[in-house]
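Priority: medium. Attachment 1 of 2:
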């Protein structure tokens, strides 16, 4: 039953009692975006003919991968079924679609802070998964009203009764209170919107106080500059007003203010409890940071809203153009991506083996994968990425400290201790896989913290693990050991001292910086042997013998040899024609251009790529 637009109150004058701010939280693929689509349709703000699947996911990469990366907010007018009186003002439901992946937890957390309630969506054929739990805990931390909902009840494999009981047990309600919907057919979605109005509390704020609005998202738009999404907590923000960002003190003029309904619609202002966007003409999202508080420049608020955090990169990788002449384009592309991604950081770096490139910091592996794919696809760059690594704190015996984001910077000399970042991981799986998961976590230096049965056949395991052990192939190993049934979520829990060493790989006695890695002492040998063997297979035979060595400091721990070969391209060319000889030599020269020269050894580009992207050393394809 579409609401008549004439009835919808102006965002600057809406009675907060009529506003409901909510978000949908769910495990990946449980149907959040599809449910959001149905809500857009049901509230009548998107006409049937304009509707397309995943309306709110605008980035190409979001559509192709079917995942939500940036959160979005939409203002939906909704008249609850019991008061379908045409004259009554509709309620305003501000729906915030949140990203679902672990890398973006901070964004989820800020989106939650903008809401009073949430819809906890669970696939009725799959049940509770690791991110269902992680998001639920986040929602509880923010004291949100939680509406449990089972989705996909149209599927033949759905088991709504079983999972309603599981969900009810988890959040402490009755199984009858769990709503059942199909985001695909639309069944139950109207009833869900009615429940949002009934259960989610209206926002509270002080209308005549200085304005305080929390930024929960900011995106870069090529035409309009940065679009900042805010929730107004106190006071009111109006068009043309001058505003101040409280974390940096920077001031801007509000060129436009409005709401997404679902396209950007300008308004006079935003009042208490409203969710909408601001445009100030800034060109870089780092000037409009998620979590920051916006207030007026004059007579603004003194105290910012709580909870602001600077995004902190957790995983680093070197990115190098395959073709050295693409370096300026790579720099340009990274600058462009940074406009829209405050968490992306980079600095120039050179590698003897790979040439000029950048050391890039990411929130996690998916973030890395997404950035790499965007660089390759949107900017047409061919890249080599070095194996991802985490940040280490190294304390020397003389008291100096080093922060290491690149294995080649690992200090030499007397090291007192090395600290590495740890995570608290939650793993969920059917109980038959408990043994396999424990074995895997043990092998990755994990420490079991606890274990709970959510129902008789589903188990939650909690581990602390070094982040470095997860960033490589942990997720793939977990999936293959549990036939895809296990799910994983993790959050950082600080640093811990560990016995770590740097392993170098040498070709003909020359260090190849791109292959250096920081690993646990017990794993140094296996890393060394693995890399040496792999390189022996990948490096073509040269005209002299090439020893491949793995070393910790000056101690060699593994060795392989590529035997010599003399390749005389003129061998088959008996006497005669000089132009033919020249042609063969030219061809050989062409081939050599594709080689990287390390010391005196020629290593084909492909060998670098293959060695750096094998499953043991950093294949991070599409972690979902
Ligand atoms: N049969 C059925 N399929 C559904 C339903 N809801 C969603 N799906 C399908 O489930 C898949 C995942 O849905 P999405 O809406 O993309 O899931 P999501 O939770 O937004 O995923 P992320 O954005 O990656 O977090 C899609 O193929 C949908 O078509 C439903 O009610 N019934």
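Attachment 2 of 2:
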């Amino acid at each position: 039953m579409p609401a008549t637009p004439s009835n919808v109150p102006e965002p600057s004058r809406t009675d907060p009692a009529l506003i409901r701010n909510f978000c949908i939280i769910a495990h990946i693929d449980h149907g959040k975006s599809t449910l959001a689509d149905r809500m857009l349709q049901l509230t009548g703000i998107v006409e049937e003919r304009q509707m397309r699947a995943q309306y709110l996911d605008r980035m190409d990469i979001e559509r192709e991968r079917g995942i939500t990366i940036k959160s979005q907010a939409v203002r939906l007018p909704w008249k609850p079924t019991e008061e379908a009186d045409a004259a009554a003002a509709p309620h305003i439901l501000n729906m915030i679609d949140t990203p679902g992946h672990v890398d973006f937890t901070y964004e989820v957390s800020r989106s939650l802070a903008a809401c009073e309630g949430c819809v906890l969506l669970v696939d009725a054929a799959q049940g509770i998964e690791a991110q269902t739990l992680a998001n639920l805990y986040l929602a509880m931390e923010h004291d949100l009203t939680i509406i449990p909902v089972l989705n996909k009840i149209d599927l033949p494999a759905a088991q709504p009764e079983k999972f309603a009981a599981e969900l009810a047990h988890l959040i402490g309600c009755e199984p009858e209170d769990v709503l059942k919907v199909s985001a695909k057919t639309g069944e139950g979605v109207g009833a869900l919107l009615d429940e949002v109005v009934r259960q989610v509390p209206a926002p509270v704020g002080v209308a005549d106080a200085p304005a305080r609005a929390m930024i929960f998202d900011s995106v870069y738009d090529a035409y309009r500059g940065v679009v900042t999404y805010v929730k107004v907590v106190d006071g009111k923000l109006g068009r043309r007003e001058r505003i101040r960002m409280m974390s940096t003190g920077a001031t801007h003029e509000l060129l436009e203010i409005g709401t997404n309904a679902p396209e950007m619609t300008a308004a006079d202002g935003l009042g208490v409890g409203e969710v909408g966007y601001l445009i100030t003409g800034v060109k870089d999202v780092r000037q409009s940071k998620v979590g920051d508080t916006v207030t007026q420049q004059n007579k603004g608020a003194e105290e910012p809203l709580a909870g602001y955090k600077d995004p902190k990169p957790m995983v680093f990788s070197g990115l190098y153009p395959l073709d050295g002449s693409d370096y300026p384009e790579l720099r340009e592309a990274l600058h462009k991506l940074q406009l829209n991604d405050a968490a992306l950081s980079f600095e120039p770096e050179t590698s003897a083996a790979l040439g000029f490139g950048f050391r890039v910091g990411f929130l996690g592996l998916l973030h890395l994968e997404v950035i790499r794919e965007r660089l390759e696809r949107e900017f047409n760059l061919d890249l080599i990425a070095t194996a991802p690594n985490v940040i280490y704190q190294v304390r020397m015996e003389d008291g100096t400290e080093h922060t290491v984001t690149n294995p080649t910077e690992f200090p030499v000399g007397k090291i007192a201790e090395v600290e590495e970042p740890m995570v608290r991981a939650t793993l969920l799986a059917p109980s038959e896989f408990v043994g396999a998961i424990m074995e895997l976590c043990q092998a990755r230096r994990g420490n079991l913290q606890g274990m709970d049965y959510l129902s008789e056949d589903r188990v939650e395991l909690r581990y602390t693990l070094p982040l470095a052990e997860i960033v490589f192939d942990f997720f793939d190993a977990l999936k293959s050991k549990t036939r895809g049934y296990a799910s994983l979520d993790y959050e950082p829990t600080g640093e811990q001292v560990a016995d770590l060493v740097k392993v170098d790989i040498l070709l003909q006695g020359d260090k190849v910086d791109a292959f250096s890695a920081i690993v646990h002492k017990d794993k140094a040998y296996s890393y060394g042997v693995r890399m040496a063997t792999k390189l022996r297979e990948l490096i073509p035979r040269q005209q002299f013998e090439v020893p491949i060595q793995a070393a910790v400091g000056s101690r060699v721990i593994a060795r392989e040899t590529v035997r010599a070969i003399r390749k005389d391209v003129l061998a088959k060319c008996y006497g005669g024609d000089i132009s033919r000889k020249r042609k063969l030599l030219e061809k050989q020269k062409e081939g050599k251009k594709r080689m990287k020269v390390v010391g005196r050894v020629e290593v084909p580009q492909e060998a670098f790529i293959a060695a750096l992207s094998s499953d043991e050393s950093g294949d991070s394809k599409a972690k979902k």
